[in-house]
Specification:
Layout lengths: L6 E9 L4 H10 L2 H6 L4 E8 L6 E8 L2 H7 L3 H13 E10 L4
Antiparallel strand pairs: 1-3, 1-4, 2-3
């Protein structure tokens, strides 16, 4: 994987019991999601709720390059997001997709 390649991340959060909506609501109310969407290189940053599993949240992130995503992780608002995850999230699973030239 090269830093200059596009990157898509699929993050599956398992919320603590009864915390799914509160987690995403807090991210939106504090402006974290909008701040991330305005970061250089961010193509997509969207949360989805599972209709079948009441504790699951899917986050889809797309970045122009892996380098952009790496810089994103160092931003000050990410510290607050980590605090919210500690409060509301029981488990996090991450999947990465990169596009390679054929």
């Amino acid at each position: 994987m090269r830093e200059s390649e596009p990157l898509t991340l699929y993050v599956v959060y398992t919320a603590k019991p009864g915390c799914r909506e509160a987690f995403v609501r807090q991210i939106v109310m504090e402006g974290i999601a909008d701040t991330i969407r305005r970061e250089e290189g961010c193509i997509r940053y969207d949360y989805y709720f599972s209709a079948q599993q009441e504790d699951k949240i899917l986050l889809v992130e797309q970045w122009q390059t892996q380098a952009h995503q790496r810089i994103h992780l160092q931003q000050p608002h990410m510290a607050r997001l980590r605090e919210l995850k500690e409060q509301y999230v029981a488990d996090t699973r991450l999947g990465r997709v990169t596009l390679e030239e054929a």
